[in-house]
Design goal:
single chain; about 400 residues; alpha/beta; Rossmann fold; formyl-coa transferase, domain 3; 2 domains; six-stranded parallel sheet; three-stranded antiparallel sheet; elongated
């Protein structure tokens, strides 16, 4: 298990986020060693605490896999930010932190008296990071600024859904919540850049990410296809619009991915599948010919791959050409690659047997990142954080008596 000396060790983050996009961002920072203190509502905390999945041993449904997955390595303060004392607490903490992150709708933090301008006046080096569906008006107000958004909205309006699906007129959402997680990754990168700038200059800044912008950013192909090629791309199913073979092919017991557009790889693929004659056929002879006859090539290759099981195809093609079986989660859990790469991290959750969540994909040779501990119980660290910040016991007692903290 990685120790708390990742590349962001020493960076302190006040995390006001909830649900997926914001917590996924701050989870990345925590995995990389930042001290992330999550500010949660007294009345139940982050929405993901109640969202599951729940372990069969958790009869009272108190320990959400969703929450632990994206809030591991963090600490928790439970507070009521609608009270003057709760606002006072935040303002007292801000000078001791490097970053504030929030994903409320436009204007919420302003109405609480905790706007970017207010907090940066208390700490000029503060990086204030916001993640919203359509961005913050400080960076460019649009007609959608006040709209709420979730993953599916971002996928729809950012262009991803229009090119995903089995064919024209049938858009489909991507399975994982990439309309949330991709913006979370973009914001984490923006925060790291802004912290580096603040460490050099002493000046913080406002970092703003819109979910829909990030989906368009990661769907960059559709932009150059449109403005260079004059296209309005549509769904291509499980195959690439330019290259063949480059997509998903049937096996006798499932499916596999193949990506062999170049002639050398295609020749090796043909030999390995007992189809060495294919490159001599004009339709298959060159990459240009295969692209021009893509449907025929896909159909012919599908007929060949369907004769073999996934294991047989892996034995023939693994390491020879770009190839991978389509794994479900049960197969991922059994495959040694993911254990060796520490992508199935074990956590100890109170009341449950040891269980697993997704690990951290970024590997550092000198400053290891990864999963160090479970997600915090609601308000588990309130006293410890406030005391470490030098706040007087009398103030802590006063805030607690006012019902502002747990």
């Amino acid at each position: 298990m990685p120790t708390a000396n990742g590349p962001l060790f020493g960076v302190r983050v006040l995390d006001f986020t909830q649900a997926l996009a914001g917590p996924f961002c701050t989870q990345q920072l925590a995995d990389l060693g930042a001290d992330v203190v999550k500010i949660e509502s007294l009345s139940g905390g982050d929405l993901s605490r109640k969202s599951g999945a729940f372990h069969p041993a958790d009869a009272e449904r108190k320990q959400s896999g969703y929450f632990h997955s994206i809030n591991r390595n963090k600490r928790s303060i439970a507070a009521d930010l609608k009270t003057p004392e709760g606002v006072e607490m935040v303002k007292r903490l801000v000078p001791r932190f490097d970053v504030v992150v929030e994903n409320f709708r436009v204007g919420v933090m302003d109405r609480l008296g905790l706007s970017c301008e207010t907090l940066r006046a208390l700490n000029p080096a503060l990086v204030y990071a916001a993640l919203r569906g359509f961005g913050d008006p400080r960076s460019g107000a649009t007609q959608y600024a006040e709209w709420p958004a979730y993953d599916v909205v971002a996928q729809a309006m950012g262009g991803m859904m229009a090119i995903t699906g089995v064919g024209p007129g049938e858009p489909m959402k991507v399975g994982p919540g990439v309309g949330d997680t991709v913006p979370g990754l973009y914001l984490a990168l923006g925060i790291v850049g802004a912290v580096l700038h603040a460490r050099t200059t002493g000046r913080g800044q406002f970092v703003d990410v819109a979910m829909v912008d990030c989906v368009l950013g990661v769907s960059e192909r559709i932009v150059h296809q449109h403005f260079f090629g004059g296209l309005v791309p549509g769904p291509e199913g499980n195959h690439h619009p330019f290259f063949v073979p480059f997509g998903i092919y049937p096996a006798a017991d499932g499916h596999v991915a193949l990506a062999c557009p170049g002639d050398r790889f295609f020749g090796a693929l043909s030999n390995a599948l007992d189809a060495a004659h294919l490159p001599s056929i004009p339709t298959f002879a060159t990459a240009t010919a295969r692209t021009a006859n893509r449907l025929a090539v896909i159909a012919a290759l599908s007929e060949i791959t369907a004769r073999f099981t996934k294991a047989e195809l892996q034995s023939r093609l693994g390491g020879l050409v770009p190839f991978g079986p389509v794994f479900d989660m049960a197969e991922i859990a059994r495959d040694p690659h993911f254990a060796v790469r520490e992508m199935l991290a074990t956590i100890d959750v109170p009341g449950l047997p040891p269980t697993k969540i997704a690990g951290q994909p970024i590997k550092f040779s000198e400053t290891p990142a990864g999963v160090r501990r479970r997600g915090p119980n609601l308000g588990e660290d309130t006293s410890a954080v406030l005391e470490a910040a030098g706040i007087a016991p009398a103030d802590i007692a006063r805030w607690r008596a006012a019902g502002a903290i747990n």
